[in-house]
Amino acid sequence: MVTIKDIAKATGVSPSTVSRVIADNSRISEETKAKVRKAMEDLGYFPNLTARNLAVKSTKTIGVILPSSADKSLQNPFFSEILRGIGSVTHKLQYSMMLSSGQTEEEIYAEVQRIVLGSYVDGIILLYSRLNDRVTQFLVEKDFPFVIVGKPQEVNDRTTYVDNDNIQAGEDITSHLIETGHNRIAFIGGAKDLVVTIDRMQGYTNALKKADIPILEEYLIHTEFLKSGGKEAVEKILRLPERPDAVVVSDDLISIGVIGMLEESGLSVPEDISLVSFNNAYLSEIIHPALTTIDIQIYKLGVESAKAIIEKKIGIDDPKRIIIPHYIIYRDSVKRKS
Amino acid sequence: MVTIKDIAKATGVSPSTVSRVIADNSRISEETKAKVRKAMEDLGYFPNLTARNLAVKSTKTIGVILPSSADKSLQNPFFSEILRGIGSVTHKLQYSMMLSSGQTEEEIYAEVQRIVLGSYVDGIILLYSRLNDRVTQFLVEKDFPFVIVGKPQEVNDRTTYVDNDNIQAGEDITSHLIETGHNRIAFIGGAKDLVVTIDRMQGYTNALKKADIPILEEYLIHTEFLKSGGKEAVEKILRLPERPDAVVVSDDLISIGVIGMLEESGLSVPEDISLVSFNNAYLSEIIHPALTTIDIQIYKLGVESAKAIIEKKIGIDDPKRIIIPHYIIYRDSVKRKS
DNA sequence: CTGTTAGCGCATTCAA
DNA sequence: TTGAATGCGCTAACAG
């Protein structure tokens, strides 16, 4: 390996001078800069990141923590997309991106501890938000810079997060259904302890209330990424005396399952029942019918979260709430009834 | 920050002794070990990874390179899944996982150069394989340990890779169609310059030949993750005098699009036309009809690739071909006709 | 079984 | 504008 010393020797300057031209220090003459740079080129020099990190006490890498593998949500294209968003800014800003996962919550905790206490990252992005999360607590305790993608359960205004306004989004998309003449609207969500599900359902009920449509308990169905239990649940809903004429589904992936189940039950979307959804995953465009869905700008969620920890040094002192705008993508899963 | 010196001082031993108990060196008495460990506990000591890395000249982290963001394939759940697989072994073996991406091929190249030349990673996993890839060439030149997931275009037996036997898989699934009584079988693939597509189509033609079924040019259709051009292409195929009674689709995601398009054309799967697919993404189970598809064990692809660079120190001297077995998942998208 | 010394490769303070 | 010296935190001979 060719080090700073080698090129110093070759150029006849001191190592510190070389170090300075690497940093493009203004107090170095252009001619020595040129001379040194040529030597670097010739000898094939490349700065050792580890050594630099040790010297400057910063790694210019941020850790990205995935939910535990047990979490089914990991199958969601959401993650590829947000990783792309994060990667785009880490790359541009010359940062690296360290990915951490684990089978269990325990493993993840150990992992985070390792990279944080081991000074292996300068900041952390949490790609999940769980209630009473040890990781979050640890980060807060250590006063370590981190940002959560999604809304933290306990908004203790000591944590920065980037999220959509899912309540508003839920209301918007439900209102669209109402405006197009639907009034028996069901809601199908994922795990009911996820904040995102709760928020979207909240928006759903808000819209119903504003339109003076009664909220029926039997129209609220939760399903863990369906297929098994989901099927019967949907069948049940469809056998109600007042069968829904529309359904709000909290995730595109679930929508695909729902459409499949409806078809099995002999119902087609949107002729027999309209459907709206969230996320605007690639799939929502491809499936038949193409989904009318809320684009939550996943990529941007990633971008903003990365910017948050990198550009502004997140600290307990200046927590931020970054809300990414959403908008409705109108496609073919809603039938105008009036 | 509490360092090795601090706890040395506190315990009255030398820094090297402390270092040794960290490494659990056998030549340190149990009592000093205990004493030192207690001090570490009390003072909240945690080894600085960067410093250690510099000293031992190894980072215990492996770089994972995603295809350029331009690549549509990034939307594929494939990546989350393989990342999970890789992560499971890096985690278990106490390694870290550095994720690199970039908008363009150029960016990726710069990134790889940075982490390799900067000694930031001990090995590289390439999550793509492109023809005449600068990155691959660079890695080979530098004699840097790396492994490719998927089959390298030019199998120069100097590179280690982990892949499925996609030719065999293509033949297997096509044969299943033939055995169930189909004989007008079309093939729908993604970009035709992807090795995986080529291999699967090869298997498809192999199966046809073995069954003495003629291979029709007009039954071969390629589509870049359809919707736009894909629709008409499928419609065209359906209008042929000899309409196919089955179709082999090279990716679950594409299958979803295909099913959608068939429906739009008034055809249903598997009643009017059978469909088989590849990957066994989560979706293939959820959609209606549930897909008969090849499980390529994505997770395992990740696991094996990680094991390859970590456990055995990959080198030019011992390239390996690791083939992950595949198997057919029988579900509801194929109609038995005989 | 443990301490001393040196060094990993780079950045930075202090002089000059 | 440049050089010498020191240190980042840890590991690894080499002694003892």
From TrEMBL, chains A, B:
Residues 3-46 form the HTH cro/C1-type domain. Residues 2-56 form the HTH lacI-type domain. It holds the Pfam family LacI. SUPFAM superfamilies: lambda repressor-like DNA-binding domains, Periplasmic binding protein-like I. It comes from the Bacteria. Keywords: DNA-binding, Transcription, Transcription regulation. This is LacI family transcriptional regulator. It comes from Oceanobacillus kimchii.
